[in-house]
Amino acid sequence: MTDASETDREHYEAVVVGCGPGGAAAASRLADHGIETLVLERGMDAGSKNVSGGLIYAEESAPYTVDDLFEGFREEASERPVTDYYIHNVAGNKVKSYDLTALHQDDTDWCDAVLRRPMDSWLAERVHEKTSETGGGVLTNVRVNGLLRERGRIVGVTCDELDPIEADIVIAADGVNSELAREAGLMDWEDPNEWFQGVKAVVEMEPDVIDDRFDIDEDEGVAHLFSGDLFEDVRGGGFLYTNEDSLSIGTVFHLDSLVEEQAEPHELLDALLTHPLLARWLGDEYDEREYSAKLVPDSKKVAHREPYQDRLVLVGDAAGQMQAQGPIIKGMNHAVTAGALAADAFAVTRGNADPAAAGRRYTQMLENSGTMDKLRPRRYDLARTVGERDRVTDAVERVLDSRVGSLAIGNPIADRVLQRAYNSPFLVSMLPDTRTGYVTLPSIIGEEHGRTLHWESSVEPPTLDERIGDLTYDTDVGNPHIEVRDTSYEASGAAVYACPVSAEDFGGGCYRSEEVKRNGTAATVVSLDTQPCIECGTCAVVADTEWEHPRGGKGVEFREG
User: Fold this and answer.
1) What is the pTM of this model?
2) Which residues contact 329 (CB under 8 A, 6 or more apart)?
3) Separation between Cα atoms, residue 137 and residue 489, nearest integer Å
4) What pLDDT, on a 0 to 100 scale, did the predictor assign at position 1?
């Protein structure tokens, strides 16, 4: 935070931080309103710092969709439309699959698979064209490092590469690791239970091979989800999405569960990649184009109900606006809606002497649009008060693991009921975050109703060392962006195995543990090398670290995202 003492500063009506879907939507609508808008992007190119699963939805009930704001988006910036959607309940080599197309199509106009680097770059070009017409534009390689304040009020932003910039509104669309949201006290990284970690591999595959192996046409795509015992006891699941000439295959787990189980993220991904179910799709040749990871906010717990302070408003992941409710995984569409509404709120309150006027209007518009009810459904709050108690979970687990549970789930009637339950938006949105829904129940379903797979996987995923080596970095020598405040294993050891580019038995990642002797006593300590960091932010939550983004253009650069 910097207090402004000079009046001769560069000034824009609006500054948007980050040019992902939320920032692009905000800047586009601001330009539509004729508002002078400057967009500051930390990456060397929009999308070079961004990772997503990823599917982008156009909801019928949403006030804005990305193709409303950017003509030609689906033709130019997305991969394949998702026309089929399945979930696979896995028990060893037995699998029971359910068609989730009804759930997928609920309130959905269309849904496309995307890769963030090409998508965000295309959006940024359109945004630069529009904002240039109103006296602004898009600047890349600029890291916004803090909020500019005057007499305690937010009046702009400070940057590593530029002098402080004043603005009538600051829209923080700087992602899950938003330094602006944390500085304003609107978001924190204290509780691993409030976050997911997603890890993804982009796998090379020719378009005609995708069509053949997934039994789809060239203008079709498919989404597959995976749950059950292939991830042992870690709460979460896997996904596979078909792109134009590649597959996005990944895992998403509750961060607190990763820590509790001391699970290695790359090993969980490999468990999915090498499962017999994927053998028929991946075939004999496996070519991994990129390995990546990110934190994902659990909107049910962290979506901010009043995402603003003074002239600062938060949109997208910076505001915790990521809907992850069982098989419902939506984020980028909510960021687009939030960005556009934030812009409209400022346009309506433009010139108001109250610096918080736009933020209050934005909050009201989020509520009125139904967005907040999707992100933080009240029925989940009611369900979790009982369903997420350890004693209740243990009792349910004992019943399910008994003969009575197997008989109750294993009959044909239960199979039909489960199919309907999986396709119920109401039931899915109130599913408690326990191992029952992610591991135990899917495993029993797979065991009781599944078919046995006799395929054998020949996939040999790259080693962690190879994956790190294939990434592109511009290391900011002499300016480490992470500092271990407490090197004891008790305080920071979780980062060694929870970090997607570190592991207990691997010495080339960000974090490593080692035994040292101090005053004749052996102790296990944690050391750090930020060279291979992929900037997911996991260590900021699970370890005692001081974490910030690298300077503009520095650090990892994703080619796919």
Assistant:
1) 0.95
2) 53, 55, 239, 252, 323
3) 46
4) 57
Among residues 237, 231, 199, 195, which one has the least CA distance to residue 327? 237
What DSSP assignment string belongs to 33-81? TT--EEEE-SSSSTTTT-----EEEEETT-S--HHHHSTTHHHHT---B
pLDDT at 484: 95
Whose CA is closest to 26, among 60, 57, 62, 70?
70
Helical spans, DSSP H, in 204-325 = 207-213, 255-261, 265-273, 276-282, 299-302
Phi and psi angles of residue 433, each rounded to the nearest 5 degrees, phi first? -85, 75
| 395 contacts: CB under 8 Å, gap ≥ 6 | none
Helix pair 116-132, 21-32: axis angle to 10 deg: 20
Count how many Cα atoms sit within 13 Å of the Cα of residue 190 in the half-sphere of its side chain.
7
pLDDT value for 265 = 97
d(CA 409, CA 82): 30
**From CA 363, how far away is CA 321, in angstroms rounded?**
13
Pair 504, 484: CB distance under 8 Å: no
CA–CA–CA angle 259, 178, 531 (5° rounding): 65
Burial classification of residue 271, based on how many CB atoms lie within 10 Å of its CB (0-12 exposed, 13-18 middle, 19 or more buried): buried
Q: Which residues of the chain have pLDDT under 50?
A: none
Amino acid at residue number 119: M
Contact 217, 211 (CB under 8 A): yes
Residue 262 CA, chain-centre distance (Å), reads 21
Straight-line distance from the first to the last Cα atom of the chain, in angstroms, rounded to the nearest whole number: 31
Collect all residues with Cβ–Cβ distance below 8 Å to 394 and sequence separation of at least 6.
none
Dist. CA 366–CA 304, nearest whole Å = 11
Nearest alpha-carbon partner for 307 in 275, 260, 341, 276: 341
- Nearest C-alpha neighbor of 31 from the set 113, 135, 110, 124: 135
Query: What's the pLDDT tens digit per position in 187-228?
Result: 998 899 999 999 999 999 999 999 999 999 999 999 999 999
Q: Residues 147, 309: contact at Cβ < 8 Å?
A: no
444's tokens: 């029993």
Report the pLDDT value the prediction gives residue 103, as an integer from 0 to 100. 93
Is residue 527 within 8 Å of 489, Cβ to Cβ? no
Residue 285 neighbours by CB under 8 Å, 6+ apart? none
- Other Cβ atoms within 10 Å of 10 Cβ, number: 13
pLDDT of residue 3: 55
CB 159 within 8 A of CB 143: yes
Q: Which long-range contacts (CB under 8 A, 24 or more apart) does 208-212 make?
A: 209/283, 210/242, 210/245, 210/247
What pLDDT score was predicted for residue 415?
79
Contact 221, 113 (CB under 8 A): yes
* 136 vs 128: CA distance, rounded Å: 8
Tokens of 235: 């709460």
